[in-house]
Amino acid sequence: MIKRANSALVVVALLALLSGCASMSVQQCQQANWARIGLTDGQSGVRVTRVDDYVKDCAEAGVQVAVADWTEAYELGLLSYCLPENGFLQGRQGHDYHNVCHNDQFVERYNQGRALYLKEKRIAEIDTQLQQLDNQIAGLGVSDDDKENRKQLWAQRRQLLEERDRLLHSGVTFSISF
């Protein structure tokens, strides 16, 4: 009896998880302000196809999406999202870009921010690897095998330090203003 109850709980939990993948619940569809949702989606830079998810989810709930209201507001939201300074911020924070801006400056600034994000992410990875190598080196003894391992670990450490140094000193620019 307990096994059957546990199985039923697992099935219910799985169904709840799968239904959680929907973008909107029945209640959200019924109470939706499509213009406000479109504005928020545009300001967030989500894909324009997000409205298709709403249409599908709300159709299952028997609710019709005001696509024109959503689209008009979405376009307004994109005006603030697609600003070049926001492009840099989005890239710098490691956010994905969904090709929604028709603004080369946004894309250029996004790529600059993204490059900085990736560079700092790699430096953090290197720092973690260096700490792991240091721990491995500290744990070695004095046997011949340990001496050989120590030599290899030090070589790996030097390579990581060189990569870290290159990353830290690449793209350094100075700006002086009076």
Write the layout of secondary structure elements.
Layout: H1 2-19, H2 26-31, H3 34-44, H4 50-60, H5 67-81, H6 84-92, H7 104-138, H8 144-169
Helix pairs in contact: 3-5, 6-7, 7-8
Q: What does this protein structure show overall?
A:
The chain is mainly alpha-helical and 178 residues long. It has helices at residues 2-19, 26-31, 34-44, 50-60, 67-81, 84-92, 104-138, 144-169. Helix 3 (34-44) packs parallel to helix 5 (67-81). The protein is elongated, with a radius of gyration of 26 Å. Residues 1-22 and 172-178 have low confidence and may be disordered.
Strand content: under 5%
In one word, what is the shape?
elongated
Helix content: over 70%
Query: Could you spell the SSE succession in H and E letters?
Result: HHHHHHHH
List keywords for this structure.
178 residues; mainly alpha; elongated; disordered N terminus
Compact description:
This protein is mainly alpha-helical and 178 residues long. It has helices at residues 2-19, 26-31, 34-44, 50-60, 67-81, 84-92, 104-138, 144-169.
